[in-house]
Specification:
420 residues, alpha/beta, Rossmann fold, 2 domains, seven-stranded parallel beta sheet, 15 helices, 41% helix
C-alpha cells in the first residue's frame, strides 16, 4: 500500500481546513490591528470619535451598495416611525448616501480593513447586516455590541454562504421553514447554541412587488408570440457561472435567436473576473444586438424582459416569484465543499425547485437555445411551480418590512432594559 494514500485529503475536508487556517491567520492579524487602534485612541488620536461612550441604538451595516434594495424598505419604515438608526456602508457611491433622512444617519465608513476596523470597535446595541463570516475573517464581533442580526439578500438556501458564515450571529431573519431546518441542523452538527430565528419574509421582494403592482405594467401574455422577445442573461460569478463556463458560445447562440438580448453580469464579476468581462464587453459591443446592464437597481431590466437565463443566482427567485415569469437555468454543477451546505446531506432547496420553474440549459442544447426560449415563454405549466416556491420561500408576503422593524425595535428595547 502506498504511503501517499495516508496523505490524501478529500476536497470537502481540505476546503474546511483551509477555511479554518485562514480564519486563524485572520484572527492573529485582527489582534495586532486591534492593539494598534487601541493604543492609537489611548494617546488621543481621533479622540473626538472615541470620547462618546454612549452606544448607538441600531446600526445597519452593508459591505456593498448592491444590498441597498434589502435595506431601503427597512430604512424607510424606520424613518416613517421616527426611529433613529445608523446606516454604515463600504460603498462610496451607495444610493443611501443620497437620501435625506431625518432619523437615519447614512455614512460611508471606507472599504476593506478600514471599514472592518471601525466595525470591530463599534459601540452599539444592535447591528443588522447581510454580510456573512462575522467573527471568521476580518469582521469581528465587537465587545461593545450586544446583538448581531443577519438578514439574507436572496430568497433561497441559507447554507450557500462560505463555511461558518452565520455561526456567530445571535439572530437570523428568514423567509422559509426549510431555511430554519438548515440552520438548526448546522447548529446540531457543530454543537452551537441555538440562535434566535424569526420568520419575517423578504422586504426587498415585497417592495419590488409593490412597485410592480403600482406601475401597472403587468407581464403581457401576448408577448408569447412576439418575435422580438427580450431575453435577460443574468449569471452569477465564479467557476460555475454561465459566462465562465460558456462565454462566447452562449452569447453567439443568443444573438442568433434574433431576440433582444440583455446581459447583466453579477456585480462581483466586474472585480473578480474583470479580464473576462472586459474581453466579452469589448467583443460584443454592438448595441443593436447586445445590451450590457449594470444598473444598481435591477427592477427595470427584470420588468422589461420576457425570460431569464441564469444559474444558481438568487435573481432567479426575484424574477420568477415577483414578476411571475419563466426561467432557463443551467445544470446545478455546484461545488459544495467550501460552503455550509457541504455539512448537510439533503439536496439544496434551490436545485430541487428549479425544474418546476423552467427549463434546463445543458452543454448539448445551447445551440438550440431559441427552441428552449420559445417553449419556456409559451408553456403555462410552470405557474404551479412558481406558486409552490412562493409558499416555501416567501412567507408574510407584503408584510415583511413591518415585521422586521418590529423585531429589531423590540430587541433593542429588550437590550436597553437589560443594560439599565
Amino acid at each position: 500500500m502506498s504511503y501517499t494514500m495516508f496523505l490524501y485529503i478529500d476536497p470537502a475536508t481540505g476546503g474546511m481546513l483551509f477555511t479554518i487556517l485562514f480564519g486563524m491567520i485572520s484572527a492573529v492579524i485582527y489582534v495586532i490591528r486591534s492593539f494598534y487602534f487601541k493604543v492609537k485612541y489611548s494617546i488621543g488620536c481621533d479622540s473626538k470619535k472615541m470620547s462618546n461612550s454612549e452606544k448607538l441604538p441600531i446600526v445597519i451595516f452593508t459591505d456593498h451598495k448592491r444590498y441597498w434594495n434589502v435595506f431601503e424598505p427597512i430604512c424607510e419604515e424606520l424613518e416613517i416611525i421616527g426611529r433613529k438608526a445608523y446606516y454604515y456602508t463600504m460603498s462610496e457611491d451607495d444610493p443611501a448616501l443620497d437620501k435625506h433622512y431625518n432619523n437615519i444617519i447614512c455614512e460611508y465608513i471606507g472599504s476593506g480593513n478600514k471599514a472592518f476596523s471601525k466595525m470591530n470597535l463599534l459601540k452599539a446595541y444592535l447591528v443588522l447586516s447581510t454580510t456573512p463570516s462575522l467573527d471568521v475573517f476580518q469582521w469581528k464581533r465587537s465587545k461593545d455590541v450586544d446583538y448581531y442580526v443577519h438578514i439574507p439578500h436572496m430568497a433561497n438556501d441559507i447554507t450557500v454562504y462560505k463555511m461558518f458564515g452565520l455561526d456567530y450571529y445571535d439572530s437570523i431573519l428568514l423567509s422559509g421553514e426549510y431555511q430554519v431546518k438548515q440552520i438548526r441542523e448546522l447548529e446540531r452538527l457543530r454543537n452551537l447554541p441555538a440562535k434566535d430565528i424569526k420568520l419575517v419574509g423578504i422586504p426587498y421582494m415585497d417592495d419590488m412587488k409593490k412597485r410592480l403592482d403600482t406601475d401597472n405594467k403587468v407581464y403581457d401574455v401576448d408577448k408569447k408570440s412576439d418575435k422580438n422577445a427580450t431575453v435577460l442573461l443574468a449569471p452569477s460569478w465564479g467557476e460555475n457561472g454561465i459566462l465562465k463556463k460558456y462565454g462566447e458560445r452562449i452569447i453567439d447562440a443568443l444573438i442568433n435567436t434574433g431576440y433582444n438580448i440583455i446581459i447583466r453580469p453579477h456585480p462581483q464579476s466586474f472585480s473578480s473576473e474583470k479580464d473576462m468581462i472586459d474581453s466579452l464587453m469589448n467583443k460584443y459591443n454592438d448595441s443593436s444586438t447586445i445590451e450590457w446592464n449594470r444598473d444598481n437597481d435591477n427592477y427595470e431590466v427584470l420588468k422589461k424582459s420576457d425570460v431569464l437565463i441564469s444559474d444558481f443566482s438568487g435573481v432567479i427567485f426575484d424574477y420568477t416569484l415577483v414578476y411571475d415569469k419563466p426561467v432557463i437555468y443551467t445544470e446545478p454543477d455546484f461545488d459544495k465543499s467550501v460552503y455550509d451546505c457541504a455539512w448537510i446531506d439533503e439536496e439544496l432547496w434551490t436545485f430541487s425547485i428549479l425544474d418546476k420553474l423552467g427549463l434546463e440549459l445543458k452543454e448539448d442544447n445551447i445551440d438550440n437555445i431559441k427552441t428552449i426560449i420559445d417553449e419556456c415563454i409559451s408553456n403555462d405549466k410552470y405557474a404551479a411551480g412558481r406558486e409552490q416556491a412562493r409558499r416555501e420561500t416567501w412567507t408574510n408576503i407584503g408584510e415583511s418590512t413591518g415585521i422586521v422593524v418590529d423585531y429589531i425595535i423590540d430587541k433593542y428595547n429588550e437590550l436597553l432594559n437589560v443594560s439599565e
